[in-house]
Amino acid sequence: MFRKKFFSYFLILTFVVSQVFGFGFFDVSSVSAIENGSWGEVNLLESLDGTIPQYDAKIASDDSGNVIAIWAQTDTSTSYRNTYVSFYNGNAWESTPLIIDADTAAVGSVSISMKSNGDAIATWKQNSQYYYSLYTSDSNWSQDDWSVPQVIPDTLNAYDSAVVEYLSTGEAIFAFNLFDTAISVYTTKYTNGSWSTPTTRESSSNGATMSLDLKADTLGNAMLVWSQYANSFGPYILQYSYYDNSLGEWSSSSTVAAGQIDAGGANSGEVVFDSSGNAWVTWVRTSLYVSRFDVGTKTFEANTYLASSPTRPQITVDSSDNPIVMWSGSDNIYIRKYTSSAWSSQTSIGTYSGIVPFQDLDTDNNGSAIAIWTANSTSYVSYYDGTNWLSSPRELQTSSGYDSYPKVTFDGLNNAHVLIQGGIDLYSGFNNLFTSKFTYNETPTLTSLSATPSTDGTGNVSIVSTVNDADANELSIAYYYEQTDTCGASLPSTTSTISTVTSENGTAVTSTGSYQVTTVTTTPGANTVTSTWATLSDGLSEANGTYCIYAYAYDGTVTSTMATTTVILDNVAPSTPAISSFTLTSTTEQATWSAVSGTSFYTVSSTAGTSVTTTATNYTYGSSSALTPNTSYSWQLKSTDSYSNASSYSTATLSHRYR
User: Fold this and answer.
1) What are phi and psi of 331, to 5 degrees?
2) Is residue 78 within 8 Å of residue 42, measured between CB atoms?
3) What single DSSP character describes residue 21?
4) pLDDT band at 161; cut points 50, 70, 90
5) DSSP characters for 328-367?
6) Rounded CA gap, 441 and 32, in Å?
7) Total-model pTM
8) 618-629: average pLDDT
9) C-alpha–C-alpha distance, residues 115 and 501, integer Å
């Protein structure tokens, strides 16, 4: 499921590289057939001196491919951490990040949520309470776009766990921990410019709480999960509360999963919604489990075991409402997917050794997915096309620094954004932020293929197709042919390349290479491409029958599906007719001949008169202008079919001597 529902396939990577180690690079040495797009270079977003740490880096995207990155960063002049934001406008990042908090006190627990139109809300902890600032999207990124930070009311004694999430209604829910006698869970809702009074989801009197996760569905409902001590000493249990937008209220706190004292309880809870409003939650309780919240009954179904000894599970839902779970364990990065009421076997998409990886996972609007993890001080990604994962993950960073806390999400254009914090080592903090872009490539289409033979005897065929490329890429088109009454579902090995073409669009390439028309300029939507196939130049002078034409478009990365059409070629002339007899009068001569199969008309020429065409099998000269007696007249006769293929002339001579 799209963590931020309208993301694009875009990639933000925050890497950590010190002055000593230099920049890392993305492995772009090859393009996989699985990856429907291309990776960009790793670029520096924010460079520090290697000693100034950054924390809580997160990203959000909108429907148009804009991105906001947010993080807490120590200010060199005050030694306090401030809240920083940076903006990507779909083409480039702003050169200078903005500071949106106006206080000298240290910040933490930053969070951000973004609407599909680009508006955003940021929250953070400062001065032992929570603050927020609203971003109003416009064509220019500036400090004025962010509202003056305001305290979220009644959040004194803020603790280090908070998350904000926009609802489809335009309202926002903020879930957070407060320290009263211990640590409690609260929520408040932002509506029409003001926050509601925070209400308790779980009191610390029932056990200290931590590790909040909050997601909203498309109908304005929300699910909040957290871990909580079952008593003063543990174990953890996994709790939830469901916000019903139609009622405007939260359910009472309830247990998703009980804990085990000897295993540290139930923790690492992650939640995601499918398009029907059902929620899926995964967690660790010695082993990895998942459960589905049925929106109809408002209850969780029985827990399902997924794996043993997992760490840091992540869950997302694809565009077909199939949940995908990712976790690390036994030196492998594993994936399982739920399809047709059953979970797939676990699949390893990468390996690691040493420190247990941090990881994240998300899907786009087409059912593809990106998994990212950090292992052995390096970051890796793997791409899923809906069926298969990359056989080997791509390496994002090869410095000897330490990468951690990766984030990945998709925007509405199906580009992917990845965020990674990194540092010199595990204990020195994170010092630089880097970005890179995976640009999604929309598969081109070629439809409405038609072929019309000429009727001028040239043997040319007009091929017209409709192509579309949503990315507005230049296209190349391949044409093949085969003599058959029925086209195959795929390109048969018996086809031949159409090698001689001209085209009204793009550049025609006369060759037997892969593509016959190249550099076809497109705009999103229907684009008509008209090409002419010179069949006689392709050695088909004897063609006489049904041929199948196969065609597909290529945008430089992927090809369209195959399109086919049939055309009747007739490059063979009918037989030459011969005059079989003459009938004479005193002033006329009539020639008669036998019909020739396949003939549309006959051409008769004679010194007895002007050349004429007729569909009959005889013709008379002299009816309108009498012939001269005792004069010899020569005759020529040929047949022509419906494709303007003409036979050679037959000849005859007759002396007009009528008695």
Assistant:
1) 65, 25
2) no
3) T
4) confident
5) EETTEEEEEEEETTEEPPPEEEEE--SSPPEEEEEE-TTS
6) 13
7) 0.77
8) 84
9) 50
The amino acid sitting at 32 is S
Mean pLDDT value across the chain: 86
In contact, 150 and 131? CB cutoff 8 Å = yes
Q: What tokens does 589 get? A: 């001569």
Q: Is the peptide bond before 406 cis (omega within 30 degrees of 0)?
A: no
Per-residue pLDDT at 234 = 63
Q: What is the DSSP string of 504-516?
A: SSSEE--SSSS-S
Q: Parallel, antiparallel, or unpaired for β 107-114 and 120-126?
A: antiparallel
What mean pLDDT do residues 306-321 have?
Answer: 95
Lookup result for tokens 């807490």: 72
**DSSP H or E stretch at residue 378:** strand 378-384
- Mean pLDDT across 513-524: 85
DSSP state of 432: B
- The two beta strands, 183-191 and 378-384, are unpaired
- CA 457 to chain CA centroid, nearest Å: 46
Report the greatest alpha carbon distance in the chain.
137
Q: Token digits for 190?
A: 């932002």
Note whether 592 and 617 are within 8 A (CB): yes
DSSP string computed for 446-476: EEEEEEEE-SSSS-EEEEEEEEE-TT---EE
**Distance of alpha carbon 486 from alpha carbon 494, whole angstroms:** 13
Q: Are 238 and 227 in contact (CB under 8 A)?
A: yes
Residue 28: predicted pLDDT:
42
Domains of the chain: 37-440 (2.130.10.10), 445-570 (2.60.40), 579-656 (2.60.40.10)
Q: How many CA atoms lie within 13 A of 629 on its CB side?
A: 5
138-141 long-range contacts, Cβ below 8 Å, gap at least 24? Answer: 141/87, 141/89, 141/94
Decide: 349 and 358 in contact? Cβ < 8 Å. no
| Residue 198, strand partner residues | none
Q: Which amino acid is at 657?
A: R
User: Do residues 504 and 513 lie in contact, with contact meaning Cβ atoms separated by under 8 Å?
Assistant: no
Residues 6+ apart with CB under 8 A from 33: none
pLDDT band at 357 (very low <50, low <70, confident <90, very high): confident
